[in-house]
Amino acid sequence: MFDFKEIEAFVWIVRLGSFRLAAQHLHLTQPSISDRIARLEEFVGGPLLDRAQRPIQPTPKGRQFYRHAQHMLETRQEAMAMLEANNPFQGVLRLGVVETIAHSWLPAFIAELANRFPDMTLQLEVDGTPGLANRLLNRQIDMAFTLGPVDAQDILSRPLCHYATGLIATPQLGFSARTFTLEALARTGTPLITFASDSRPYRELQSLLHQQRLERIKLHCSGSVWTIVRLALDGIGVGAIPPRIVEQEIARGELITLPCDLPRLDFAASWPQHIDKALADGVIDLAIELGQRDQREHA
């Protein structure tokens, strides 16, 4: 079997037309170059160089092999350059994020990620926490920004940011922030609309209604945050989501916030232990920086 030493010797002899010049270029002796070509020709079963010509020319078989040999050397150089590069942030990062992050600071994160790590390609998935946790455990994504950490063996996590949960409604429903209570909501028959039924916010809101003996309030749910927003805008119900997501609608007067003591949402980054530490630290440090900045600016 031949290796890259034989291929390199062959390519440079063809390029320079001389065993002597190729030996000088590769800092080898001429007998060493001759030995490499002899091993290569023995492997392919015939001559690759016409030694009778000056400068030396490849044989028909040698011309055919030369095209492939050049490509092999170029590919090898590219691979070595990638491995020797100081920047570990190369290749594809499969990132899963929940909608609250997708509709808040994710655009700024993607822009800065591209600026800091230009050789990285991002493959993005937006889903709920249960779906992203499942993908992470099945190695279908490399990293997940979810509501709470993914608690599993060989999974590492770091906190990202947190947002308050609030109630949002269209002014057309007639509720006032000064006088609103969940009891008042129950009297109108207006439903609450929140995250999917397998989510922590849904379970916490369900528990709150039970504690206040307000089970008669209908609790609708959706896996899509923007479906909740659309339903709230249309007056179908009162949304229970972070108001951060709908700041523009609130500023335009299309939605208002209503008082309710709901648990805040804590978000975390999770990734498998086998992910390169420098890669994980670089990406997650940036996510924490931007997530907490957004949290402060929109508190």
UniProtKB/TrEMBL annotation:
Residues 2-59 form the HTH lysR-type domain. PROSITE patterns: HTH_LYSR. Keywords: DNA-binding, Transcription, Transcription regulation. It comes from the Bacteria. Belongs to the LysR transcriptional regulatory family. This is LysR family transcriptional regulator.
